[in-house]
Amino acid sequence: MENREIERKWLVKDIPTDLEKYECHFIEQAYLHSSPTVRVRRDNDDFYLTYKGSKNWEGESEISHTEYNLPLDEEAYEHLADKRDGRLITKKRYIIPIENGLKIELDVFEGDLAPLVVAEVEFESEEEAMAFTAPEWFGEDVSRDYRYKNAYMATRDI
After folding, report:
1. Catalytic residue annotation
2. 32, 70, 92, 119: which is deepest, by most CB within 10 A?
3. Of 145, 151, 123, nearest to 61 (Cα)?
4. Domains of the chain (ranges, CATH numbers)
């Protein structure tokens, strides 16, 4: 299934203290290729193979790209995850509703990427994305910083 994803991403300077009240997903991601991105993901008890358009690690990354998701079963996920490049990324993702029907996806990374915490917000248009004012608890906007792309973090130290 094709999906156009428009998102911005921030580092987080102050983690909300009431995370337990929000929906939480346990996510594992394994990257089979980084440019274009091919990954497998476990999202609680759901499994996917995802293809995202090409990225240039040497330059700026765009906030918009095409993404294709295909369902997998757990056996296929495990088989492909074992073939990954680099580290298996694990994180807890909290879904925090905000104004205008938007949602913050707050990723709290685990393992050797801890204590990294990143907030992402997806938008309907690039105009909406650029007009968005981030909450005070967000830090630096890293939307165009390739070092904070999961595919990059899977294969390199940050």
Report:
1. 31
2. 119
3. 145
4. 7-155 (2.40.320.10)
136 vs 133: CA distance, rounded Å = 9
* Rounded Cα distance, 7 and 130, in Å: 10
Contact 69, 39 (CB under 8 A): no
Q: Give, in degrees to the nearest 5, the angle at Cα 144 between 142 and 146.
A: 90
Name the phi and psi angles at 76, rounded to 5: -65, -40
pLDDT in tens, 42-101: 999 999 999 987 554 444 456 777 889 999 999 999 999 999 999 999 999 999 999 999
| Structure tokens belonging to residue 68 | 């294709």
Entry pTM = 0.90
Phi, psi of 125 (to 5 degrees): -150, 160
